[in-house]
Amino acid sequence: MWPNTTASPFLLTGFPGMEKAHHWISIPLLVVYVSILLGNGTLLFLIRDDHSLHEPMYYFLAMLAATDLGVTLTTMPTVLGVLWLNHREIGHQACFSQAYFIHTLSIVESGVLLAMAYDRFVAICNPLRYTSILTSTKVMKIGIGVLIRAGLSIMPIIIRLHWFHYCQSHVLSHAFCLHQDVIKLACADITFNRLYPVVVVFAMVLLDFITIFFSYILILKTVMGIASGEERAKALNTCVSHICCILVFYVTVVGLTFIHRFGKHAPRVVHITMSYVYFLFPPFMNPVIYSIKTKQIQSGIIRLFSLPNSRA
């Protein structure tokens, strides 16, 4: 069977029943969109430009910022197209590509958070060997491994979408393409596409969280063994930003899962709103968290914005 390339395009959906308010709804979404671009873009610029930030911890932060930018740049163009221009049509290839990047980057984010936990574990539990263990080459290999793991794990279900025939309604339930939305429209056996994502979630995202959890138990055990209270506080303080990012990511994952599993009778707008929270809240909050809780990032931002004034 050849890929289905001549079928009618899918139709994206904004906020059903609130079409007249789409322009108003787009305003806060646009503000969040621009904030995400500026916040994560600033982090990437600082880490590239400031040599004092050329350390494993900040390299992993740069990966997180790049992932957040990728998620936002993948989802928001079609969202704004629907809300501003009522441009709802999206071709199958474009839709499947968007779904692939959205789901891949979600797995990447989980992997990057795990890598950041490993960085904190080595820094606190084995500080004397920190620089020899987490070399630039090792950090690069971890980043590539996280990307390959995510890309390969999502590929099987997205490839199968190209061969399905879609004889149901072509209307999707969001303003961007998600795998779980697309397979509802397929007139084919979708058993594999229903079960495989569950396996991926349990094998990767849940396993990542469990590994992060146990790494912090070991970190806490090591910190409690430090005699000086000031040193204990200093060690824990280096983990606060990462812990906040973990909570932001996994709380939104649990919230979205809970709504889809137990909120079947909830208004449709609740499901749609929760999906926007899932995709936009972590990329919005992560730069805020690190700029508030990390002194080196604070100093870099101050230098960045005071530079024009000092020149003047």
TrEMBL record:
<dbReference type="InterPro" id="IPR050402">
    <property type="entry name" value="OR51/52/56-like"/>
</dbReference>
<feature type="transmembrane region" description="Helical">
    <location>
        <begin position="195"/>
        <end position="219"/>
    </location>
</feature>
<dbReference type="InterPro" id="IPR000276">
    <property type="entry name" value="GPCR_Rhodpsn"/>
</dbReference>
<feature type="domain" description="G-protein coupled receptors family 1 profile">
    <location>
        <begin position="39"/>
        <end position="290"/>
    </location>
</feature>
<keyword id="KW-0675">Receptor</keyword>
<keyword id="KW-0716">Sensory transduction</keyword>
<comment type="function">
    <text>Putative odorant or sperm cell receptor.</text>
</comment>
<keyword id="KW-0552">Olfaction</keyword>
<feature type="transmembrane region" description="Helical">
    <location>
        <begin position="269"/>
        <end position="289"/>
    </location>
</feature>
<dbReference type="InterPro" id="IPR000725">
    <property type="entry name" value="Olfact_rcpt"/>
</dbReference>
<comment type="similarity">
    <text>Belongs to the G-protein coupled receptor 1 family.</text>
</comment>
<keyword id="KW-1133">Transmembrane helix</keyword>
<feature type="transmembrane region" description="Helical">
    <location>
        <begin position="100"/>
        <end position="118"/>
    </location>
</feature>
<feature type="transmembrane region" description="Helical">
    <location>
        <begin position="24"/>
        <end position="46"/>
    </location>
</feature>
<feature type="transmembrane region" description="Helical">
    <location>
        <begin position="139"/>
        <end position="159"/>
    </location>
</feature>
<feature type="transmembrane region" description="Helical">
    <location>
        <begin position="240"/>
        <end position="263"/>
    </location>
</feature>
<keyword id="KW-0807">Transducer</keyword>
<protein>
    <recommendedName>
        <fullName>Olfactory receptor</fullName>
    </recommendedName>
</protein>
<keyword id="KW-1003">Cell membrane</keyword>
<dbReference type="GO" id="GO:0004930">
    <property type="term" value="F:G protein-coupled receptor activity"/>
</dbReference>
<keyword id="KW-0812">Transmembrane</keyword>
<dbReference type="InterPro" id="IPR017452">
    <property type="entry name" value="GPCR_Rhodpsn_7TM"/>
</dbReference>
<keyword id="KW-0297">G-protein coupled receptor</keyword>
<keyword id="KW-0472">Membrane</keyword>
<dbReference type="GO" id="GO:0071396">
    <property type="term" value="P:cellular response to lipid"/>
</dbReference>
<dbReference type="Pfam" id="PF13853">
    <property type="entry name" value="7tm_4"/>
</dbReference>
<dbReference type="GO" id="GO:0005886">
    <property type="term" value="C:plasma membrane"/>
</dbReference>
<feature type="transmembrane region" description="Helical">
    <location>
        <begin position="58"/>
        <end position="80"/>
    </location>
</feature>
<dbReference type="GO" id="GO:0004984">
    <property type="term" value="F:olfactory receptor activity"/>
</dbReference>
